Amino acid sequence: MLIVGGGLVGASLAIALHDSGLDVAQVEAAAGALPPVFDQRNLSFADATVNALTALGVLGKLHAPAPPIRRIHVSRQGDFGRVVLEARDYGRDAFGQVVVARDFGQALEARLAELPRLMRYRPARFLGIEDGDAHGRRVRIVDDTGEHALSARLLVGADGSGSAVRDALGIDARRHDYGQVLFVARLRAARAPDGSAWERFGAHGPTALLPRGDGHFGLVHGVDAADADAVAALDDDGFLERLQQAFGWRAGRFIAVGPRSRYPAIALRATALTAARAVLVGNAAQTLHPIGAQGFNLGLRDALTLAEAIDAHRDDPGSAGVLAEYARRRAEDHARTFAFSDGLARITSDPSSALGPLRSLGLFAIDRAPWLQAMLVGGAMGYRGDVPRLCRAPA
Ligand SMILES: Cc1cc2nc3c(=O)[nH]c(=O)nc-3n(C[C@H](O)[C@H](O)[C@H](O)COP(=O)(O)OP(=O)(O)OC[C@H]3O[C@@H](n4cnc5c(N)ncnc54)[C@H](O)[C@@H]3O)c2cc1C
Predict the structure, then answer these.
(1) Is the pTM of the predicted complex or chain greater than 0.90?
(2) Which of 46, 175, 212, 375 has its CA 20 to 30 A from that of 190?
(3) Distance 286 CA to ligand 1 centre (A)
(4) Domains in the chain with CATH codes
């Protein structure tokens, strides 16, 4: 089988399939040691993700510490609602862990290097699909030696939001632009991270702080797209002042900020997850607003579910049985996780004052209703729908 894309989800899938005994090839377009997606963004790994990546032998390869999230604070600028979720109230040590994407990429790479059966084409770009037959797909790729054709019984599109595989399969995607730009940076505050993750919602976007292992916070600051260039042009002092206003003083005074990178806030949903002898996983299937920190967590569950479906139909990884099982098992998690992230992004970013009381009521209600909290926490920890086996805690 052939995986197009060696980003977070494609690399995880290749590792999950290694013991399947199948011949697996991977095509990754990026040159260099790591694809650019392994950048300075901070990834919050849900509990289910931590379990799975540990079982896959990836987390053990991290060089930097991955601090736990023991507490989540959610609040909104100018409103009275506030929620504090404590992991220990749910019998847990932590809701998840924080890993810098670059460190994660290095750990994945170290694990991939241990997989002798995996055939890696990189840098090589997927170009399109040729006429195949009922038994497989024929795919065209290009590398520095020219164009080649590859055959696979199953083609996996793990090539991100702008998926060329999705286009080549003729699968449409519905796209939503939230009209926000997210700035990501390392931030030092007067108070060192203490296991708290903070989400603060402002009129034009969220400001979130995640505890990092290097004494800094991982910052995400969402701004209205129309203001993004002006915010990018601020010097460090101006940016820190803006952050302090947006976030308040809960983590103390903000002292220093590292280089900023920016991302457009978009969401995307493919209209189908499968086509004949082909599936979509990760961002190619569904891209989420980063606010809920769910994107990779969701995509990893795609990869693990696909690996399980293939294991259940070992004779043919691209059979109709695999495709049907994959699509059926992913439906609930996709719908609920999308609704969670999209709802959070919209209700917290809509500047219309009419929503103000409702938003506060939302936080207030969550604070008062343990069942609602438990539902939220279960989802945020990665236990939605039909959970893959490796996501469960070892017995
Ligand atoms: C600011 C920010 C913060 C985030 N924080 C979190 C978080 O806290 N928790 C979380 O779970 N998620 C988070 N996410 C989401 C997470 O980054 C994505 O869900 C994840 O990157 C998706 O992985 P993927 O492998 O599907 O796609 P990608 O990571 O985009 O990888 C796609 C790969 O395909 C390759 N490719 C593309 N086209 C081709 C082609 N034609 N041929 C060959 N290769 C190709 C690319 O080079 C790339 O390596 C965040 C995202 C952002 C932007």
Answers:
(1) yes
(2) 46
(3) 11
(4) 2-175+265-391 (3.50.50.60)
